[in-house]
């Protein structure tokens, strides 16, 4: 059955090589997924060789883990590793049919990335952004071929989360959308078409939860109580455990985008900012007996 809003699948273009801009955690997860599921070459780029090498090493480590767990046969593991390469030069994208960016969440950075990529790739190459909350329409504005840009938003951990938000900007063409839906199917993800609005749909809902928790402790409820209050609701992770997994600065960035778009419906938390300013990566730390606690230093930052 055709997903709601998906154009005719016949319009999809073949994808025989993928480019990933960025070699951080999200980019590495994406590169692994593309190589493993599509079995096509995937090249990852970043601003220096050290980052590129770290990204490739991360992927090799994840493949080794899958193999050790018996989730990937040796031949598939070797093939997946051999399909992945890294470069500091975006010229490596010259023959790519699909390039996705997973770089720093700053509109000007993303626009610069797409301008550089567009100077290298063919006019048919599809461009995608994995942004959490920025405007795809804005990113497309200065492109020579804005019709080829689509939002392709994955969730952490990419290997296990089944959902993919596909974001259509006003100029996104049917060919681009059809290719995005075909890719989602081949990646074995469930794709939904969402409007290009701040934080799309899922992060809007998640940040509603996160925002209520940060509001509660901004208002004086102890942080452990506020975060744990949702545990009996059957969520797989409390908001702050999830926040630590995706990165508190990423969560806060989404909070800021939503605040900019919707005002006080989404507030920016002073306590969350204090944790980030102090380099604290999460609320919880493991205890010796296998439990978890909020360390005194973290607790002290929460007014
Ligand atoms: N990478 C790869 N595989 C992972 C993984 C990771 N980081 N974390 C867990 N897994 C795998 C495990 O290896 C295990 O696989 P196996 O059955 O082959 O051994 C499987 O997932 C289940 O893991 P566990 O049994 O260890 O733990 P759980 O049952 O608690 O499941 C979870 C882990 C799937 C991550 C679950 O806790 C969950 O669904 N959490 C919520 C995740 C979520 O909401 N993500 C959205 C974040 S928002 C976002 O990303 C948007 C961005 O824009 C900010």
From TrEMBL:
It comes from the Bacteria. Signal peptide: none annotated. Residues 17-196 form the 3-hydroxyacyl-CoA dehydrogenase NAD binding domain. Residues 200-279 form the 3-hydroxyacyl-CoA dehydrogenase C-terminal domain. In the central section; belongs to the 3-hydroxyacyl-CoA dehydrogenase family. This is 3-hydroxyacyl-CoA dehydrogenase NAD-binding domain-containing protein.
């Amino acid at each position: 059955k055709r997903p709601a809003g998906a154009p005719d699948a016949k319009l999809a273009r073949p994808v025989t090589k993928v480019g990933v801009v960025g070699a951080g955690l999200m980019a590495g997860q994406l590169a692994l997924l593309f190589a493993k599921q599509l079995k096509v070459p995937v090249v990852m780029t970043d601003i220096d060789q050290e980052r590129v090498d770290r990204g490739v090493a991360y992927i090799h480590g994840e493949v080794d883990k899958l193999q050790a767990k018996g989730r990937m046969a040796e031949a598939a593991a070797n093939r997946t590793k051999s399909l992945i390469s890294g470069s500091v030069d975006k010229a490596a994208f010259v023959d790519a049919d699909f390039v996705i960016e997973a770089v720093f969440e700053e509109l000007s950075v993303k626009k610069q990335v797409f301008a550089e990529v567009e100077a290298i790739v063919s006019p048919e190459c599809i461009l995608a952004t994995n942004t959490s909350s920025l405007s795809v329409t804005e990113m497309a504005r200065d492109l020579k071929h804005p019709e080829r840009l689509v939002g392709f938003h994955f969730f952490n951990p990419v290997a296990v989360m089944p959902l993919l938000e596909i974001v259509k900007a006003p100029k996104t063409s049917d060919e681009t959308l059809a290719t995005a839906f075909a890719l989602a199917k081949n990646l074995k993800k469930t794709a939904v078409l969402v409007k290009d609005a701040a934080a799309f749909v899922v992060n809007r809902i998640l940040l509603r939860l996160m925002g209520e928790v940060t509001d509660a402790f901004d208002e004086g409820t102890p942080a452990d109580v506020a975060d744990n209050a949702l545990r009996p609701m059957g969520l797989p992770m409390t908001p702050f455990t999830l926040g630590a997994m995706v990165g508190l600065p990423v969560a806060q960035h989404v909070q800021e985008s939503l605040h900019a778009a919707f005002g006080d419906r989404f507030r920016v938390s002073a306590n969350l900012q204090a944790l980030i300013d102090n380099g604290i990566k999460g609320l919880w730390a493991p205890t010796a007996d296998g439990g978890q606690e909020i360390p005194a230093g973290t607790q002290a930052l929460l007014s």
